[in-house]
Amino acid sequence: MIVVDQLQKIYGDTLAVDRLSFSLQSGQICGLVGKNGAGKTTTMRALAGLIDATEGRLQVAGCDLHQDPLQVRRQLAYVPDDPPLFNDLSVGQHLDLIGGIYQVPDYWPRGQELLREFELEDKQAVAARALSRGMRQKLAVVCAYLYEPSVILLDEPLTGLDPPGIRTLLESIRQRAAAGATVIISSHLLAMIENVCTHLLVMQHGRKQFFGPTDQLRGETDSAASWEQAFFADQHVESFAGGSV
């Protein structure tokens, strides 16, 4: 579902992503972790087609991003850490907009189900500008789920969510993966996402330091605390480089 082959992104004199390669299959959930500036958001934005790769090949749902960007966008949803909602549109109008753009047949019942799932059903007439940070995040996720994309990219999606909201989001990710979607979730809250992920991608200074199934990483560490050491202490992260795929 996702193939990243030798992705490189350069901004001026800054090498943001350096020859990154990995692949994910249908139903897999990948946690993307690393320090600020590791290249996580750049990688997601490149996969979403929002920025052009300097070099490399990107495939999403069997489509080459360079050759068929429109088809990729039909198959992919990207939710950034600060969702760009339309402030003057209500919650319900956002459903109308996304349902129309993606030509989702009979989208309204599906939209109502999602609003109930994320506890936004009573906010349908409320403008996006009046929503709290967490509610805006939920609405962005609802819009992403509405057209049932086969690839979902979530960049720091837990920001602003309360504990019940986090639980709902993580369970929704499991459900969509079980239905065949491929998900990448970027987060600094490792304890929150580790149990939902099937794979982990650790980045440092734009480079891949580890990529593989979570079972492989659990076999190399003893506890959740040692995971955090591995992700954020340079000497531990580098110890996983030999296990990169």
Strand order across the largest sheet? 6-7-8-3-9-10
Task: Give the integer mean of the pLDDT values.
Answer: 88
Helix content: 25-40%
Shape label: globular
CATH class: Alpha Beta
Counting DSSP E segments of at least 2 residues, the number of strands comes to 10
CATH superfamily: P-loop containing nucleotide triphosphate hydrolases
Output the structural class: alpha/beta
Total discrete domains = 1
User: What is the number of helices?
Assistant: 10
Q: H/E order of the elements?
A: EEEHEEHEHHHEHEHEEHHH
Strand content: 15-25%
Layout of secondary structure:
Blueprint: E1 2-11, E2 14-24, E3 29-33, H1 40-47, E4 55-60, E5 63-64, H2 69-75, E6 76-79, H3 91-101, H4 107-117, H5 133-146, E7 151-155, H6 163-178, E8 182-186, H7 190-193, E9 199-204, E10 207-213, H8 214-220, H9 224-232, H10 234-239
Parallel strand pairs: 3-8, 3-9, 6-7, 7-8
Antiparallel strand pairs: 1-2, 1-4, 4-5, 9-10
Helix pairs in contact: 3-5, 4-5
